[in-house]
Design goal:
Distance between the termini: 58 Å
Mean pLDDT: 88
Structural class: alpha/beta
Number of helices: 9
Radius of gyration: 23 Å
Number of strands: 29
Largest sheet: 27 strands, mixed
Helix content: 10-25%
Length: about 525
């Protein structure tokens, strides 16, 4: 280990120990951001933040204690961007694990590879100019049992895999590039054939694409520290069934340099996991920026694992479908989620996006989002409980076996899993106990587009200190016991915010004006 890395690790440990200096007492989360409001739910997050602090110290230990360094070149890896070096890179990683742990340092160069598997106590460092480039050969990504897009099934391994491991990190100013363009092209080329057969819901599962980084059933994992992730074929960072994971100091650029857009290129997906910290990430993609998930439909309800004790902060989302999202995989539920100090720019369609449908189930408990700046987004706050029916309501069309898309020869087994019936009592999602505060948005198309279900309204939301300048105020439909305080919407079209089947909490008021201002709360 170099002295510089030892100093950096020690500094990180000290910084996060300072955040947790009140661990002997009820934790005050005011230190998480500039707002005093962040300390109000401190007790619920005391254990979460305390364990994250401990994790940072543990992950600094390899540098502090000087574990051995392994160089892929010594195992035959060449960085010419043409030679497939999967075996050499994997041998290097395995040697570090066999030694009881160590650092694998990748020097400048372009290393063409298929799936790599990191093991416990292994720390991959990409030097400046080092690029791990994913091959487009499908055979280089072996099928593994995992969760893919909300259901458990066999799916290609990711480019970088951490599965069933502990104490693993990926860091440095280098790049991991999935070379997503050929994978994306296959999806877009097949889209018309699937849409015309009523199979839009199956396309993502039939055109199987490797994620860039998958953290699965693992703990004590950290990625970031200046790392660049590019052109993922599918989800970029997938944290699934894992705990004590930190994503810190990460840049994601998933769109192609020639303007190509990758389908389903989510930035960071936190999926049925707990004790997760995401901070200082910078994202451009073509789907959700940072997204919370918990399984979907019958399979997600069977697994029934929530996403809980998550902190997302100090990040920017520049382009994509959403900035911060919950869903649409909601079956396991969400608890103790805190989002703060987020900037969302005009390349994003929906600033805050909550989505589900009547077969996905799930619930929310103690979700707070605060100190969010939006500039030029299409819709500031979007909640849709009838999300994308062609995708979210899968049905196998009668007689489809004789009219399959050109890439299929028979109906896949997982179609039956996707279309398994869900009882209405289980399938209806229940979003409640969500607080949105200190949100400022300008240059917006629509301020609110909130649409729940008549029999399953949104309950117990608190909105305070929100100011939105938009072309349209929008609407809120099917809500109960909502509390508003100092919520002001300036609509340039002059129309006030429309409330349909909404019961406000005591003291809430709606004041429309001919100037297009809607004010809710005193």
């Amino acid at each position: 280990m170099t002295k510089g890395r030892e100093t950096q690790a020690a500094a990180l440990a000290k910084r996060h120990l300072a955040i947790g200096s009140g661990l002997g007492n009820p934790m005050n989360l005011r230190s998480l951001g500039p707002s005093g409001e962040l300390g109000t739910d401190a007790l619920a997050f005391r254990g979460c933040v305390g364990l994250l602090v401990l994790l940072l110290v543990i992950l600094g230990a390899p540098s502090l204690f000087g574990q051995p360094v392994f160089h892929p070149a010594s195992f035959g890896a060449v960085g010419d961007g043409k030679t497939l070096v999967t075996a050499a890179l994997q041998k290097t990683l395995d040697a570090a694990a066999a030694a009881g742990g160590g650092e694998v340092e990748l020097k400048a160069g372009v290393y063409l590879t298929g799936s790599l598997f990191l093991k416990s106590h292994t720390h991959l460092v990409l030097d400046r100019g080092a690029v791990i480039l994913g091959t487009s050969q499908k055979s280089a990504y072996p099928l593994v049992v995992t969760r893919a897009a909300g259901i458990e099934m066999r799916w290609p391994a990711a480019l970088i895999n951490i599965a069933g491991q502990t104490d693993v990190s990926i860091a440095g100013p280098g790049t991991i590039d999935g070379d997503g363009d050929p994978w994306w092209k296959e999806f877009w080329d097949l889209l018309p054939a699937y849409q015309s057969r009523g199979l839009r819901w199956a396309l993502d599962y039939d055109v199987q694409r490797p994620e860039l980084i998958r953290i699965y059933e693992s703990n004590a994992v950290r990625i970031g520290n200046g790392l660049m992730l590019r052109r993922s074929a599918f989800w970029t960072v997938h944290i699934c069934y894992s705990s004590h994971v930190i994503v810190d100091g990460l840049t994601i650029r998933d769109n192609g340099t020639n303007g190509d857009r990758g389908p389903s290129t989510d930035g960071v997906d936190i999926d049925s996991s707990r004790h997760v910290l995401v901070e200082k990430v910078d994202i451009e993609n073509n789907d959700d920026g940072i997204c919370l998930k918990a399984g979907m439909n019958a399979d997600g309800l069977r697994v029934n694992r929530p996403t809980e004790d998550v902190i997302i902060r100090d990040s920017i989302i520049r382009q994509g479908i959403s900035g911060i999202a919950i869903g649409s995989d909601t079956a396991g539920g969400f608890k103790n989620i805190k989002v703060c100090d987020i900037t969302i720019l005009g390349g994003v369609r929906f600033g805050i996006y909550l989505k589900s449908t009547r077969t996905r189930g799930g619930w929310t408990d103690n979700v707070t989002m605060s100190h969010i700046e939006m500039h030029g987004v299409k819709t500031a706050i979007m909640i849709d409980l009838n999300y994308f029916p062609a995708f979210s309501t899968p049905r196998i069309p009668l007689g489809i076996g004789k009219n399959l898309p050109p890439n299929l020869h028979s109906i896949p087994v997982y179609w039956r899993i996707l279309t398994a019936p869900v009882a209405s009592a289980q399938g209806v999602p229940h979003f409640r106990d969500i607080t949105l505060s200190s949100i400022h948005a300008d240059g917006v198309g629509t301020a609110f587009s909130i649409n729940a279900m008549p029999g399953a309204p949104l309950v117990g939301f608190t909105l305070k200190n929100i100011q939105i300048d938009a072309q349209h105020a929008g609407s809120i439909r099917h809500a109960r016991a909502w509390t508003f305080k100092n919520v002001v919407v300036h609509s340039r079209d002059g129309a006030p915010l429309k409330l349909v089947d909404v019961e406000l909490s005591r003291g809430a008021v709606l004041v429309p004006s001919t100037l297009g201002m809607s004010k809710l709360g005193k």
